[in-house]
Write a structure and sequence with these properties.
By secondary structure, this protein is α/β, with parallel strands linked by helices. Helices cover 46% and strands 16% of the residues.
Length: 277
């Protein structure tokens, strides 16, 4: 691990979803250089065996370490659930931050004591999610309703985020939660904040404005935790000088370029293919 404050922060996801977290990091830590990896050659992680997700997470982390990163953000709920404990054991000196499923803030927000959790099957079946949801249900009396959004990551990865396919999937997955009186929805995958506008639109139509529904996105909490740990270790970059953004993909570079342009207003010059073996 490097102790160079000018070294980049590494961020990775199975595809473009982690850009929703990276946006928060950019806003919170504007002086930091960022290196993003979309492991899109193996996306989506959500329908893969845990052993393969761990294998890919280690491979991507090794690649990022070869680029001299000073901290790692696992900007993927599925990879966090499957691999972060192992990564922290393997790289004990490296700052490693993963995604929290957002159940705690959702429990505090919910007035109806019913929270819908939108996530991948892997995340919902993970020991981490099962333990936390059971613990919080006991402590708070909140009913967490898990909804595996099969196919949604695939569509966000390959399609326009206003596509009819995405709308159809939301029409399938949201009504059971809303009809059960959920007043809070956890966006338990980093891809889902990229279609927040469609989720809000559907909720408003389905409920005809009868009651508000809050969405929980933990990207900002991750950025603040990264900031705190960098400062604690003396690794935060204090100089307000031009920083670098670099991104690479193990799959479609063009899709990553489109997503970076759309979500980060970043051009294609620093986005390239990478064989993350």
């Amino acid at each position: 691990m490097t102790h160079d404050t000018s070294a980049p922060v590494g961020v990775f996801d199975s595809g473009i979803g982690g850009l929703s977290v990276l946006r928060h990091i950019q806003q919170t830590l504007p002086n930091e250089s960022l290196l993003y990896v979309a492991d899109s050659g193996f996306a989506p992680y959500g329908d893969k065996p845990a052993a393969l997700i761990l294998e890919r997470s280690i491979a991507v982390t090794e690649f990022l370490l070869s680029q001299q990163i000073k901290a790692l953000v696992v900007a993927c709920n599925t990879a966090t659930a499957a691999a972060i404990a192992n990564l922290r054991l393997r790289y004990p000196e490296l700052i490693i931050i993963g995604m929290e499923p957002g159940l705690k803030p959702a429990a505090l927000l919910s007035q109806t004591k019913t929270v819908g959790v939108l996530a991948t099957r892997s995340t919902l079946h993970s020991d981490k999610y099962q333990r936390l949801s059971a613990q919080l249900s006991t402590e708070t009396g909140v009913n967490f309703m898990p909804q595996a959004c099969v196919g949604l990551v695939d569509q966000i990865e390959k399609a326009n985020v206003d596509s009819e396919q995405i709308r159809n999937l939301l029409q399938q997955y949201l009504p059971p939660l809303l009809d059960a009186n959920a007043d809070t929805l956890v966006l338990g995958c980093t891809h889902y904040p990229l279609v927040t506008h469609l989720i809000r639109e559907f909720v408003a139509q389905h409920l005809a404005g009868s009651r508000p529904v809050q969405l929980v996105d933990t990207g900002q909490a991750v950025a603040l935790q990264l900031q705190r740990l960098l400062i604690q270790r003396g690794l935060d970059r204090k100089a307000a000088i031009p920083t670098a953004f670099t991104a690479c993909a193990s799959g479609s570079v063009e899709r990553l370029r489109q997503a970076c342009a759309q979500w980060l207003n970043i051009g294609p010059s620093n986005i390239s293919a990478a064989l993350v073996a």
